[in-house]
Amino acid sequence: MMMFVGDSFTVGSGPVRTWQTYASESARQLGWQPVIAGAGGTGFVNEGRVGRTFEQSFMAELAWRPAPDLLVISGGHNDSRWPAATVRQAAARLVWSVKAHWPGTRIVMVGPIWIDRAPPSAYLLRDALAEVAARERVAFLDPLARRWIEGRRSEVLLPDGVHPTLGGHHKLARWLAGALQTTSAPA
Q1: Residue 80 covered by a domain
Q2: What is the pLDDT of residues 113-148, one digit of tens each?
Q3: Alpha-carbon distance values, 129 to 27, 33, 89, 124, 152 (Å)
Q4: What is the pTM of this model?
Q5: Could you tell me the strand order of the sheet in which 34-38 lies?
Q6: Element holding 8 (H helix, E strand)
Q7: Per the structure, how many domains does the chain have?
């Protein structure tokens, strides 16, 4: 089983529903059942409209379930207004919480996703999350290192200029599924 905790990119937004997101699609591509937790607007620190962080979503929606083979923690986009040090601490607490509940579960952290150009704060967050992943010996995947728009912007980006279209989610899913097949936790 493959579980995710994340934000609107992970759970879906606009016309893209949860079962159509990159999270669901990447799990399908790998032949796994997805279980997806989180909510739009949330982050490691940011509580969004639902009033909870990724760690709180993990505790409420996932921690009580049997341990999955893989947990993907994906996000940071909504934390861009918070200091990187604060996000780093919250991300570490989440990883510690996951390891305490499910010591044998493989954890992969996916950094913040920006389909178009990311602001400088996104790179600071990415670096903070990559540092946590390295220190905690979990794999880190960097969506900011990829170019997502290769044709018409509208093929991968919704009119809000933030969220991926269904085509954008399919592109993210192909990338994530491929990366998960070749990525392991640091030694």
Answers
A1: yes
A2: 999 999 999 999 999 999 999 999 999 999 999 999
A3: 23, 26, 9, 9, 31
A4: 0.95
A5: 34-38, 2-6, 70-74, 106-110, 139-141
A6: helix 8-11
A7: 1
